[in-house]
Write a structure and sequence with these properties.
This protein is an all-beta fold. Helix content is about 0%, strand content about 40%. It has no helices and nine strands. The radius of gyration is 14 Å and the shape is globular.
Length: about 110
């Protein structure tokens, strides 16, 4: 599934988040527009949202993927930054610990 992109305007736009897959890929070019990922947890339990760290340590070890909890029945926003963009693919990869009743959209 692809997370929909909501482009805001002065006149306003209707929000239309979509169901997420366990792993989603986001185009890294959205970083330059100040994009944010909105995650809406409509489930009865908290979930974790984990961005893949594409970096490496000075010794060449892979980066650390840190999970961020989204409590049940809440909405959380995440900044999409250049540090999340994989240099080889140009994409950002985000994983969701659960997908039932979880929706998301990218806001630019």
């Amino acid at each position: 599934m692809a997370i929909p992109i909501l482009t805001t305007t002065v006149a306003g736009v209707l929000s239309a988040p979509a169901a997420v897959a366990s792993s989603e890929t986001i185009n890294g070019n959205l970083v330059s527009s100040g994009a944010k990922l909105q995650v809406i947890n409509g489930a009865g339990a908290p979930i974790n949202v984990t961005f893949t760290d594409p970096g490496t340590t000075p010794l060449g070890n892979t980066g650390t993927n840190a999970a961020s909890a989204v409590a049940n029945a809440t909405t959380k926003f995440f900044a999409l930054t250049s540090g999340l963009v994989d240099g080889a693919s140009g994409n950002i990869v985000v994983a969701f610990s659960a997908t039932t009743s979880i929706t998301a959209q990218i806001i630019v």
